[in-house]
């Protein structure tokens, strides 16, 4: 625990203060980057530090730290070289780049060179597929690399140089990058403006500008709110939601039916429902003989959908609550169709041998012939059993 400096502790407090008091555990990810910035990896002491700061136990912190590959479990070099070997980069030569570096550096995945300069890893998509094969050094991109380019980059790093990434700021060490990932600004003079984004990355933005597409009301210069401002805005939003809910309930109460139901003695019945009794249905209360169909707003989605599709048809949705299906709702199938169906059923008995019904050579052709024969017999006024023995 003592390995962490007062500066790191102050930064930890700053990170936690970014989150609402009852959401402080959300600060775990940046805190893990912070402890990694101090030690070069998330050590047992780092796990303990995060747990203590956030009031979690070490198992909870460890579960997160071991889930994400950006948190390292053992000391790393100054430069983390990640080579994408995922599908897109792989077909473009990413695996050759990685294999060449393995051979050149004499280390494998997640291993560090003896001089402590380079940690090598293969990565599963670095989110720059349009620039493949891609490799990153401390998460800054080197696009469209080949084995020779990759070797040149690591050799320059080991010689103390700082090759310029294809995009983004100039390289810093992995510990310095971890501070940025914890949410603190890159304080190097002009570093942020060093490298422009790639053309493919800007394609969507350019298209939006060409077609005059923008997000209504969005101001890219909107300042990030302080926690106090965010809390105040949240409280105001909650109050507005509660007021809207209350107004809605009051409006519903006003629209509720108020016509009194006369009791046997002519006195108005109470509008409420006595405990233990069912509310009276409309036809019960009024003596109406109208069909048992609910008011439009109470119709089930099935009924509404059926009516939308067939506005002129009687509502005929089986099992729809509150709906009576007329006994003649389903028109009888044409006779020819019945005969064809019967012939098909007779020709496709359950196989009984594990085969699906009808899995028999010539069954389809025979079915068609039987259907035709049945139709012909029907046209001739036949009413007896057909060739299949199925009673019509
Ligand atoms: S597959 Fe390599 S960056 Fe996506």
Molecules bound to protein: FE2/S2 (inorganic) cluster
Largest sheet: 5 strands, mixed
CATH fold-type name of the domain at 79-173: Glutaredoxin
Which class do the helix and strand fractions yield?
mainly alpha
State the end-to-end distance.
Answer: 88 Å
DSSP strand tally: 5
The helix fraction, in percent, is: 40-55%
Write the element-wise H/E pattern from the N-terminal end onward.
Answer: HHHHEHHEEEEHHHHHHHH
CATH architectural arrangement of the domain at 79-173: 3-Layer(aba) Sandwich
**Ranges with pLDDT <50 over ≥5 residues?**
261-296, 315-329, 351-361, 378-392
Strand order of the largest sheet: 2-3-1-4-5
Radius of gyration over alpha carbons?
37 Å
Mean pLDDT metric: 77
Strand content: 5-15%
Shape: extended
CATH H-tier superfamily of the domain at 79-173: Glutaredoxin
Summarize the structure.
The chain has 392 residues and is mainly alpha-helical. Among the domains are: 6-65, Arc Repressor Mutant, subunit A (Orthogonal Bundle); 79-173, 3-Layer(aba) Sandwich (Glutaredoxin). The protein is built from 14 helices and five strands.
Describe what this molecule looks like in 3D.
- Its EC number is 1.6.5.11.
- Keywords: 2Fe-2S, Iron, Iron-sulfur, Metal-binding, Oxidoreductase.
- Pfam families: 2Fe-2S_thioredx.
- Belongs to the complex I 24 kDa subunit family.
- The protein is mainly alpha-helical.
- It has helices spanning 6-17, 28-39, 44-54, 58-65, 87-91, 94-105, 147-158, 174-181, 199-210, 227-255, 282-286, 301-309, 335-347, 363-379; strands at 79-84, 111-112, 118-123, 135-137, 140-142.
- Bound molecules: FE2/S2 (inorganic) cluster (FES).
- Residues 84, 86-89, 125-129, 132, 134 line the site of FE2/S2 (inorganic) cluster.
């Amino acid at each position: 625990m003592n390995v962490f400096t007062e500066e790191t502790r102050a930064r930890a407090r700053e990170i936690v203060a970014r989150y609402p008091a009852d959401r402080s555990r959300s600060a775990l990810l940046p805190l893990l980057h912070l402890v990694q910035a101090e030690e070069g990896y998330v050590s047992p002491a780092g796990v303990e530090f995060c747990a203590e700061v956030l009031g979690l136990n070490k198992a909870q912190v460890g579960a997160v730290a071991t889930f994400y590959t950006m948190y390292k479990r053992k000391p790393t070099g100054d430069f983390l070289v990640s080579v994408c070997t995922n599908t897109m980069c792989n077909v473009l030569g990413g695996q050759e780049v990685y294999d060449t570096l393995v051979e050149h550096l004499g280390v494998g995945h997640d291993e560090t060179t003896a001089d402590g300069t380079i940690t090598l890893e293969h990565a599963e998509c670095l989110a720059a597929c349009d620039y493949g094969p891609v490799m990153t050094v401390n998460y800054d991109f080197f696009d469209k690399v080949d084995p020779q380019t990759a070797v040149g980059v690591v050799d320059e790093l080991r010689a103390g140089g700082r090759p310029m990434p294809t995009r983004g700021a100039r390289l810093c060490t992995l510990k310095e990058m971890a501070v940025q990932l914890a949410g603190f600004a890159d304080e190097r003079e002009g570093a942020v403006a060093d490298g422009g984004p790639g053309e493919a990355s800007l394609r969507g933005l350019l298209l939006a500008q060409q077609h005059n597409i923008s997000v209504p009301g969005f101001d890219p210069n909107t300042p990030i709110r302080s926690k106090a401002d965010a809390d105040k805005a949240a409280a105001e939003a909650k109050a507005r939601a509660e007021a809207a809910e209350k107004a809605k309930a009051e409006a519903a109460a006003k629209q509720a039916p108020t016509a009194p139901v006369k009791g046997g003695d002519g006195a108005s019945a109470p509008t409420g429902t006595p405990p233990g009794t069912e509310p009276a249905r409309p036809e019960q209360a009024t003596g109406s003989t109208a069909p048992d169909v609910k008011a439009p707003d109470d119709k089930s989605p099935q009924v509404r959908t059926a009516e939308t599709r067939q506005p002129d048809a009687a509502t005929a949705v089986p099992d729809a609550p509150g709906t009576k299906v007329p006994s003649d709702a389903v028109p009888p199938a044409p006779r020819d169709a019945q005969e064809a169906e019967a012939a098909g059923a007779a020709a496709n008995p359950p196989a009984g041998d594990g085969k699906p019904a009808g899995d028999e050579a010539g069954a389809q052709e025979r079915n068609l012939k039987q259907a035709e024969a049945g139709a012909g017999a029907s046209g001739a006024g036949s009413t007896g059993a057909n060739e299949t023995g199925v009673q019509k």
